[in-house]
Amino acid sequence: MDSELYEQVDPLIDDVADQIGELIDGDQLAVLKAKLAEICGCLPGEFSASLDISLRITDPEGLTLPLLQTGMTSFDGTEPQQVWGDSTPQDYVVFGDVVVVPNDYCPQCWAEWRFKQRNPKCPGCGLQLGREVKILLDSGICPHCERGTVSAGNPVCVECNNRVNLDYVVWG
Ligand SMILES: [Zn+2]
Ligand SMILES: [Zn+2]
């Protein structure tokens, strides 16, 4: 996988995500939803049951990249709700170039690289966050929770309380 291929398929993945969202919102999966709630209803309280849908791309070397992970989860036998587990695209600046890869991956070698701010060195190629690579915060969306906003003047996210390490980011 490289970022050019990724940028080509990403809009199509979004279409698939929209379709699945409509399917889960609609009535077509009513029988499955009822079964899922029934399964969950057989379990003790605080258990949950999930039905997952994922879209993965596997390269000729057998490396698999999950680009979409969603599905339905029922808690305590309630009506199943849609849940998302996929990682969204993130912009990075690598040796001066802007590269877009899924959030949990390395923008250079595509190794899985989660929680970059806590583990600032790529486990695959040793790329160092804050040195060779920085997170490009174009929109000011918090890279941790993707819900709140952060800025150079206010680096603590109001949603998740995570502080953005200013050595690790560049502003678009
Ligand atoms: Zn790497
Ligand atoms: Zn946040």
| N to C succession of SSEs | HHEEEEEEE
Looking at the structure, what is the overall shape?
globular
The largest sheet is: 4 strands, mixed
- The number of distinct helices, counting runs of at least 4 residues, comes to 2
* Overall radius of gyration: 19 Å
Q: Oligomer, anyone?
A: single chain
Number of domains: 2
Amino-to-carboxy terminus distance: 25 Å
Bound molecules: zinc ion
By secondary-structure content and strand pairing, the structural class works out as alpha+beta
Residue stretches low in confidence (pLDDT < 50, at least 5 long) are none
Helix content: 10-25%
> Beta-strand percentage?
25-35%
Q: Order of strands across the biggest sheet? A: 5-4-6-7
Q: What is the total tally of β strands? A: 7
Protein architecture, described:
With 172 residues, this protein is α+β, with helices and mostly antiparallel strands. The chain folds into two domains: 3-84, no CATH class; 87-172, no CATH class. It has two helices and seven strands; from the N terminus they run ααβββββββ. A four-stranded mixed β-sheet has the order 5-4-6-7. The chain has a three-stranded antiparallel β-sheet with strand order 1-2-3. The chain is globular, with a radius of gyration of 19 Å. It starts with a helix and ends with a strand. One zinc ion is lined by residues 106, 108-109, 111, 122, 124-125, 127. One zinc ion (ZN) binds at residues 106, 108-109, 111, 122, 124-125, 127.
